[in-house]
Design goal:
mainly beta; Methylamine Dehydrogenase, Chain H; 2 domains; 4-stranded antiparallel beta sheet; 0% helix
Length: 227
């Protein structure tokens, strides 16, 4: 939360913590000898005392309340791969899995189902802003938003949307074929990009006081736009 550390995960159980002030890299890979692929990570709390939440390809969530020194694990759903995780408080957040399901937690360890009952495409990205404000990106160009009482569907096109970042009304989502969609008060609009590579992650610069929006994707693709 204090932007002094950068955490990342990847294939074969890779987990790392990069100290952006000193350049030191701490390796927490293969927790409990697990070498499955990891899909996403969310981190809360101060540097050196972080809570770390790792989404696993085997349907498990791996969580640490001691800055990655030890990990516990839990299977929230059917065992389908967990595609994304995001937290809005130290131990409160949401995940989405490959079985078209959204789960929530308030203790960082146990998970309950939140939806989506009528989802007809896979879920890939999640932006967790509060218990009553959750946005999910999905296949078929679909974006879902939970407002505390119901799931509301929005359609952007036909691209598989891999990641999403929303803050109130403004938002960005990215996906297949280099597609980027931006939301304002009029809804989602496609923006031109210089790539046809599949985009897999997006960051809104405004959320961090940074003058660029950034998206990354296949083949080492990185694109940015001044905002």
């Amino acid at each position: 939360d204090d932007r002094e550390r950068l955490w990342f995960v990847g294939n074969s159980g890779a987990i790392g913590e990069y100290d952006v002030t000193t350049g030191n890299l701490n390796d927490y890979s293969a927790p409990n000898d697990v070498t499955n692929n990891f899909n996403d990570v969310a981190v809360t709390g101060p540097a050196g005392e972080a809570n770390v939440y790792v989404a696993g390809d085997s349907g498990k969530m791996y969580y640490s309340f001691d800055n990655g020194e030890t990990f516990d694990e839990v299977t929230p759903g059917s065992g389908s791969n967990i595609n994304a995780v995001d937290f809005y408080d130290e131990r409160s957040g949401h995940i989405v899995d490959g079985n078209k399901t959204v789960f929530y937690t308030n203790d960082g360890a146990s998970w309950d189902k939140l939806g989506i009952a009528d989802a007809n495409s896979n879920l890939f990205g999640v932006d967790s802003d509060s218990a009553n404000d959750v946005t999910v990106s999905a296949g078929g160009g679909v974006v879902w938003n939970w407002d505390g009482s119901q799931w509301r569907r929005e359609d952007t096109g036909d691209a598989t949307l891999r990641d999403i970042e929303v803050e109130g009304t403004p938002g960005l989502t990215v996906g297949g074929g280099g597609k980027v969609y931006r939301r304002d008060s009029t809804g989602w609009q496609q923006e031109a990009t210089p790539t046809g590579e599949n985009l897999k992650a997006v960051l809104r610069g405004a959320d961090f006081g940074y003058p660029y929006d950034i998206a990354t994707g296949a083949g080492g693709t990185v694109i940015e736009k001044s905002v």
